[in-house]
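[recover] target loaded
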């Protein structure tokens, strides 16, 4: 429990339906823990409903998160620490999501290896609202086969049945493992391992990360033959395939975990960030560098430092140095515009540029066109607000 508390505390996170944050829960547990412990041991513990949070997606829909209370996250984390070492070694080697020592980059590299070997048609399966549609009965049945302990099964069932609070109303659920709790990823892998094993039995080459699964074959006909039994497997688990997003197609027209591929002149398969992922990144940078937010330059740089390195870590496998340099130049240009917006008037622009070491001629040329921010950011201003200047501010970069 102490190890679990350290992990929950490190993850931070918002309060659940009880309104208690990390610090308040710590004080609450000093008084309530003996009772909670007894209920857990006797099998009478009942978790509170998760707090529903909707996260907007690029297509206008929402990803539903269920935020358990800090106390319930603590109990789930402790349960995870016991179950994961028992269950994880039984999973397929082709499963890379939410597992110790495995990352999305492992799935991307495995997929690229298959493509390099000549398997250049992909059976790309997209599950519709997977975490919202997991059947509790089927999941519990699969879990019992791995953990024949009635007390553990009863506690997991209690979490699945806890429901979701939305607008002050508790909505009971008979399906779904809402994202937001520590246990959900492990339970998802328990359910989907059945599909992995069947694909292995048939000798297919595939990579799966959570509910994203790609099977690689040599021809369109082979792909169509794979898609049919895949649909039957998912139907058996009461999971629905999103027909509009799933397809049998060339790997060079599809993306996997935000990556696209292309074929180089010497026949090698290259990796690039997909257009959709790039646009999402640029949209986020636009939000962080808005001229109307009233944030200081230092505050904007700090926001960029909290976002850009994480995004870079996700897409560090991309073999596109020219794209990285272009994005860096674009971010610096937006920051130059932000400087001009803060200085506003021509006289202020002239004075501040002289302080930064600009020649009177450059300072005057920028000040004379004081409201042509985007134009100035690309012409004279880049000689003053240089790469070194932004490095001194601590601004992150991709290249």
């Amino acid at each position: 429990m102490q190890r679990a508390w350290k992990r929950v505390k490190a993850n931070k996170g918002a309060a659940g339906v009880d309104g208690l944050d990390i610090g308040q829960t710590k004080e609450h547990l000093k008084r309530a823990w003996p009772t909670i412990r007894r209920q857990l041991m006797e099998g009478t513990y009942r978790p509170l409903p998760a707090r529903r949070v909707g996260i907007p997606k690029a297509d206008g829909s929402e990803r539903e998160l269920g935020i358990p209370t800090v106390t319930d996250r603590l109990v789930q984390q402790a349960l995870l620490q016991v179950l994961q070492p028992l269950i994880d070694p039984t999973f397929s080697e082709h499963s890379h999501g939410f597992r110790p020592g495995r990352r999305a980059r492992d799935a991307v590299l495995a997929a690229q290896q298959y493509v390099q070997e000549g398997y250049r048609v992909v059976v790309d399966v997209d599950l519709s609202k997977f975490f919202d549609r997991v059947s509790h009965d089927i999941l519990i049945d699969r879990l019992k086969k791995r953990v024949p302990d009635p007390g553990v099964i009863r506690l997991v069932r209690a979490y699945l049945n806890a429901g979701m609070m939305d607008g002050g109303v508790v909505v009971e659920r008979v399906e779904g493992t809402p994202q937001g709790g520590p246990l959900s990823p492990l339970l998802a892998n328990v359910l989907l391992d059945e599909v992995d094993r069947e694909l292995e039995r048939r000798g297919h080459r595939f990579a799966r990360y959570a509910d994203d699964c790609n099977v690689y074959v040599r021809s369109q006909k082979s792909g169509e033959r794979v898609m049919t039994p895949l649909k039957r497997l998912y139907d058996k688990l009461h999971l629905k395939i999103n027909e509009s997003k799933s397809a049998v197609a060339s790997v060079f027209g599809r993306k996997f975990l935000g990556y696209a591929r292309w074929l180089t002149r010497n026949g090698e398969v290259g990796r690039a960030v997909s257009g959709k992922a790039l646009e999402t990144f640029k949209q986020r940078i636009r939000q962080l560098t808005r001229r109307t937010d009233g944030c200081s330059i230092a505050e904007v740089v700090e926001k960029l430092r909290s976002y850009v390195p994480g995004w870079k870590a996700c897409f560090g496998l991309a073999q596109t140095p020219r794209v990285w340099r272009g994005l860096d130049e674009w971010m610096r240009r937006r920051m130059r515009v932000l400087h001009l917006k803060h200085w506003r008037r021509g006289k202020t622009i002239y004075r501040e540029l002289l302080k930064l070491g600009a020649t009177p001629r450059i300072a005057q040329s920028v000040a004379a066109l004081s409201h042509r921010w985007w134009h100035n950011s690309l012409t004279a201003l880049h000689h003053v607000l240089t790469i070194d200047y932004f490095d001194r501010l601590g601004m992150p970069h991709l290249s």
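[recover] notes: The two ends are 42 Å apart (CA to CA).
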